[in-house]
Amino acid sequence: MASGPLAGVRILEFTQIIAGPFGCQFLADLGAEVIKVEPPQGEPWRLAAQFVPLESKTYQALNRGKRSLAIDLADERAQAAIHALVPTVDAVVINYRPDVPARLNVDYETLSAIKPDLVYVDSTAFGRKGPWANKPGYDIVAQGVSGLTAGGARFDDRGVPMLPSIGVPVADVTTGYAIAMGTIAALFHHRATGEGQMVQTSLLANALQAQSGGFMSLPAADVMMRTPFLEALDQGRAEGKSYTEMANLRRAMQQGRQTGNIYYRNYLTSDGAIAIGNLSASLRKKMRDSLGIDTDPRDDDPAWDPQAPESIKFGLELVERVEREIATNTTEHWVNHFETAGVPVGEIVFVEELVDHPQVVENGYRVDLEHDLTGPQTMASSPFQMSKTPPEPQGAAPPLGRDTDAVLEEAGLDRDAIAAMRADGVVR
What we know:
This protein is of the alpha/beta class. Helix content is 43%, strand content 15%.
């Protein structure tokens, strides 16, 4: 029996790849019954890097606690079955390309006519209006058009742009959180008023949110960075400068404002690397004191000009001094050294090392599950904990079509009808 604050809520999920499945996995952790609809051959992420037939690590990592309904929505019988199921659910979550839901008769207008108080959460790549409304898009495209890729200013050895963080789909992950939050908010409104509604989000919207101040236009402050960069960008493009040159210019302008910043950066040690973060004057002083640095004009001189030649010279020399000193000793030494001084510090590690780390284990940040086909697995747990209604994964991701018959029978189909659909390849 499901537990959690959403216990008793039923959600019909039409999503694929990352953002939608990730958001709906949160809802399942919170106790909702999530019925994932995917084609009889399996959704693309199930088929990516299969380690056994129809099972991939990428799929299992995003679909725990769900039921699987494998059905071909292009078939009229399948659409009728979905329409019969809709009155039994509280919410629908969908992340198909904007033109697809209407073609499959699972758009908001169609389904809300069947259930007027339906919560319908629609996630697209770029939103349903504007010149990009019907463009398909994945995380890499959203990062590109939103400024995330350019902001990272990372290139391969040929100068080709790379994602800011390899392996972390920022637009997808942030959209997953937005899907879950929007669903919960609409369900809360429904409980208070009995009204359903359509909720919309997109990869683009969340990629912009992730950049906050970079996207924000604030004329009084833009004279420091935004306006000079836009002027330089216009000039550079007029001169025929490459994307790589302009991205490096932006990075240089940003770094120029913080030349010599020893306080918020990563350092190489003699056997690894550490991350240090000091965002207040008191913390910066603790770091200086721990390293025997007497003063820093950023904190001690009200008239300090970061662009003055003497300031740049001082900063570069300070960085070189600290980098050289930290490189002489081990990661363990420096973590202990800075922690004793009250300086925020951490060893830079690989995520694969963390499953059994005591900080992860003792805080319940991992969960152990058993998959029907592939056995034991350990995953990151729900990102929040609750004292009264704790989230709890409702099991591992489902094998393809495991719940097809049960869900269709709950929608009112008899076994003969289901068998005929299976014989025709409409369901799995």
